[in-house]
Design a protein that fits this description.
The complex is a heterodimer of chains A (307) and B (514). Chain A is mainly α and 307 residues long. Chain A has helices at 2-31, 39-57, 60-84, 89-108, 133-138, 142-160, 162-172, 174-180, 184-210, 222-232, 237-259, 266-286, 288-292. Chain B has helices at residues 46-53, 76-82, 99-105, 109-112, 116-126, 142-154, 172-187, 199-205, 228-236, 296-304, 327-332, 353-361, 375-388, 405-417, 435-449, 462-468, 491-498, and strands spanning 8-17, 20-30, 35-40, 61-66, 69-71, 84-87, 160-164, 191-195, 208-213, 216-221, 254-263, 273-281, 285-289, 314-317, 320-321, 335-338, 368-369, 372-373, 423-427, 454-458, 471-476, 479-480, 484-485. In chain B, the strands form five sheets. In chain B, strands 13, 16, 19, 20, 21, 22 and 23 form a seven-stranded mixed beta sheet that branches. The chains are: A mainly alpha (307), B alpha/beta (514).
């Protein structure tokens, strides 16, 4: 029994980490009232940027940084269009995804077939050797720890700092925040950039650790799952972490179930995470009062200062 | 030698917007401890001026002096540091945050850290503005929300407090409480710049008034020496005609009946309607008073057919049941509606005025023939509305969004009234509309009843309701009181009903209608 539980848990962690990054970044962005549907695009561009730099310079650190920067760069385009040119957020986000997928294929063309050695895992003598728990807690790579840290960081920022309060206030009522004297555009731009960097990190994890080679369109809809997770988590970073692991878990369990010769068509099992997303969305929208308090009131609305 | 320093002095402030001059060489000064009224019709430039003082936007030219030193304020947080606080007409509050968070966000970081909630309690007790720092804003009444704004300002020890139409949403009792606080602040030497349309309040409260018209200061006066009428005339630059009502009206048969309306609100933080019964007779104006957010919006939506009536509820137009008709079908049988929100609900912002007339008058005025819009008759009707209701606009092709609030309201009223509805239902007919336009709108409501129509006015403005209603009911937390004849109920009693005190808890001179 135990001999397959440990690998299963380890793979669940690797399957969940990209979702954690992307979902937590989007929680932050949506809390400021911006709906960025381009997560998929930012992730995939992060993935190729990290992979290309990693392969070329053979440096994991440089690769991770490039992944984050690439995600933030795509987010910057989004911010420019929606905040300064007041483009529709939904349309711009969708365009960003399409653009990101195309751009990554273009860049990735010459990297098909190459491999990256993977990210080094943390090794602490004695601690990592603890049976079962050791490899789970002390044997991960840096991005896994960073993803958990980002959840606590975003949570602490949103609910414990003044700037977090300002972000939430802007998401709640941007006109009021503006009349009090905060720069809605500036705050949103910063938050969009951070969200983009986090999505880029999520993408980097895919191409550096999860499957350390480049395949076209390798995010495979994870950006959309992350988007659904934000609603699933009712805009709370902690719950987004939980949700990400739940969905990561379902993905892995269905793979293992196929291995154990469970008589359910593979296609049904693969669609489970998506079905679960729909199910959760239905559940949540049924009970509106609980989620409304967390849902930013200005979500998806462009801000134009009135005279 | 005694030198009277001014707290704030403005010299030749001018601000242009494309096409108009919002402020034209405005001069004014405010003394320490003075409650100074800023009066003017919509579009006179009051809001532009105070937003300049508070640093929300700049001016094209002119100088500002603070305690005799020239200063420049480029944003609100600089204004707050200087000692200027402002309470906005549309509160700058965040529903999903707590009182404490709402206050923290509007003050400097140094003030916001360390025992803020104690400071809030201390200041709120000191000035008689009770507040619980841990409550969420969406659970609070409008009066309580305003207290947050006032406390937020006071925490920063301002020497000038700007209040933009602070009483438009308060009950009479809340207004009295607010005035006590303001007088007390004035005694402590804090200057108050008070913007209002309500002339009686300005007479009661203010030491001095500056009157603006078309961006210019037209006069200054001492409100004690003036009558409300004389101030209204200075404001409008012409004679003021207050609405006239017929005395000893006789009413016909029941025109509109609501029976047992129960409706769960679908709004975020909305109010559920509970067992609402009401009858309105032909020729009658019935007013519904109540503090904002007590079910007024929900009631209008049920009446207009935007949301279905609850299970057992019935709406009758004369003898005809209209419960299951949609908005358009209700319009076809003679009902008309004016919602609270002009842009976006009463009119489509980015459509021309004539297109907006088609939207509500398509069938009653035969503007659609065999499924095609008749542009000729639509424009003719639109021109008729513009002329009859004195709407200031270049013409029927102007976008609705280009009209000022008061003008658009006149247009919407004209559009509905000229369709000769049998029943007209209006929510907040004169919210934010200046005295002159408000009087014309009220007069048009009274005139409508002479054409065999019944009118239902839902408003927070008590003076307005007392002026035009034949009977008044009060809505509180989704429940409607019986409608009392207007001469049998006092403003204090209405205020108590609005605050949720049951009629059995105070004695009413008249008897219940039902």
């Amino acid at each position: 029994m135990l001999e397959w539980v440990l690998p299963a848990i380890l793979t669940i962690i690797t399957a969940s980490t990209p979702l954690v990054f992307a979902a937590v970044g989007e929680v932050l962005v949506e809390k400021s009232g911006v709906l960025n549907l381009g997560i998929e695009g930012m992730m995939v561009v992060g993935a190729i940027a990290a992979f290309a730099v990693g392969v070329t310079f053979e440096s994991a650190t440089l690769a991770i940084i490039s992944g984050a920067v690439a995600g933030a760069f795509l987010a910057f385009i989004f911010g420019l269009l929606t905040l300064n040119l007041l483009a529709n957020q939904v349309a711009t986000g969708l365009a960003l995804t399409i653009f990101g997928l195309g751009l990554s294929s273009l860049i990735g063309h010459s990297y098909v077939g190459k491999t990256f050695p993977g990210l080094p895992k943390l090794e602490i003598t004695l601690l990592t050797d603890i049976p079962f728990l050791g490899p789970i807690i002390f044997g991960q790579d840096i991005l896994v720890y960073l993803s958990i840290l980002s959840v606590f960081g975003v949570s602490w920022f949103l609910y414990r700092t003044r700037w977090g309060l300002i972000v939430r206030a802007i998401g709640e009522n941007h006109d009021a925040a503006y009349s009090i004297g905060y720069s809605v555009k500036f705050v949103r731009m910063i938050v969009i950039l951070i969200g983009g960097a986090l999505a880029g990190l999520g993408g980097s994890y895919l191409s550096l650790a999860y499957t350390p080679f480049w395949v076209e369109n390798m995010t495979a809809g994870r950006g959309w799952i992350a988007l659904a997770l934000v609603v699933f988590a009712s805009w709370k970073p902690g719950r987004a972490l939980l949700g990400a692991y739940l969905f990561g878990g379902i993905t892995i369990i269905q793979m293992h179930a196929q291995g154990f010769d469970v008589q359910i068509p593979a296609q049904v099992m693969s669609s489970l995470p998506y079905l679960a997303t729909i199910f959760v969305l239905v559940l949540i929208s049924r009970d509106s009062s609980r989620t409304l308090l967390n849902a930013p009131a200005c979500l998806g609305k462009n801000f134009q200062p009135s005279s | 030698m005694q030198v009277t320093r001014t707290r704030l002095k403005l010299e030749n402030i001018t601000k242009h917007y494309p096409g108009i001059i919002a402020n034209d060489s405005v001069n004014m000064s405010v003394l320490p401890g003075e409650i100074h009224a800023l009066l003017g019709e919509n579009g006179a430039g009051k809001s532009t001026l105070v937003k300049f003082i508070y640093g929300v936007h700049g001016a094209d030219s002119g100088r500002m002096f603070w305690e005799d030193k020239e200063i420049q304020i480029s944003n609100p947080s600089e204004a707050r540091k200087t000692g200027i606080g402002m309470v906005f007409q549309h509160f700058s509050l965040f529903d999903a945050l707590t009182v404490e968070e709402n206050i923290a966000i509007g003050i400097s970081q140094e003030l916001a850290t360390g025992g803020l909630s104690d400071k809030i309690i201390q200041v709120s007790n000191q000035y008689g503005l009770p507040l619980d720092p841990s409550r969420y804003v969406y659970t609070l009444s409008v009066g309580e929300r305003q207290r947050i704004e006032v406390v937020r300002c006071l925490l920063q020890n301002p020497r000038l407090l700007i209040m933009d139409e602070p009483t438009s949403v308060l009950t009479p009792q809340e207004v009295e409480e607010l005035f006590k606080t303001l007088r007390r602040l004035s005694d402590e030497g804090i200057s108050i710049l008070y913007i209002s349309h309500k002339l009686q309040e300005i007479k009661d409260l203010c030491h001095k008034a500056t009157i603006m018209r078309n961006g210019k200061v037209v006069s200054e006066c001492n409100p004690d020496d003036e009558t409300t009428r004389s101030m209204a005339e200075m404001m409008m630059g012409k004679d003021f005609i207050s609405p006239e009502r017929r005395e000893n009206k006789s009413f016909g048969s029941t025109k509109l009946s609501l029976r047992n309306i129960n409706r769960v609100s679908h709004h975020q933080h909305g109010v559920d309607l509970a067992n609402i019964d009401l009858d309105i007779k032909t020729g009658e104006v019935v007013g519904i008073a109540g503090i904002a957010g007590n079910g007024q919006t929900e009631l209008l939506e049920v009446l207009s057919g935007e949301v279905p009536v609850g299970d057992e509820g019935i709406i009758l137009l004369g003898d005809r049941e209209v419960t299951n008709l949609n908005t358009n079908d209700r319009r076809k049988v003679g009902m008309a509606f004016v919602p609270e929100e002009r842009l976006g609900h009463g009119a489509v912002p980015n459509m021309s005025l004539w297109e907006n007339t088609v939207l509500s008058a398509a069938y009653s005025m035969d503007l659609v023939i065999r499924g095609f819009v008749s542009k000729v008759s639509s424009i003719a009707f639109c021109k008729h509305v513009i002329k009859k209701f004195n709407v200031h606009t270049p013409g029927p092709n102007t976008f609705a969004s280009a009209l000022s609030g008061g003008n658009l309201q006149k247009f919407i009223f004209g559009r509905e009234i000229l369709q000769n509805p049998k029943v007209l239902i209006v929510l907040q007919p004169t919210w934010g509309v200046d005295a002159g336009s408000a009087a014309r709108i009220r007069q048009s409501l009274i005139d409508l009843t002479e054409n065999e129509a019944a009118v239902l006015v839902i408003s927070q403005d008590l003076e307005e309701l007392l002026e035009i209603s034949d009977r008044i009911a009060v809505i509180h937390e989704g429940k409607l009181s019986p409608a009392y004849p207007v001469n049998e109920i006092t403003i204090e009693e209405i205020g108590l009903l609005m605050g949720g005190v049951k009629k059995s808890e105070f004695s009413i001179r008249g008897t219940d209608e039902n």
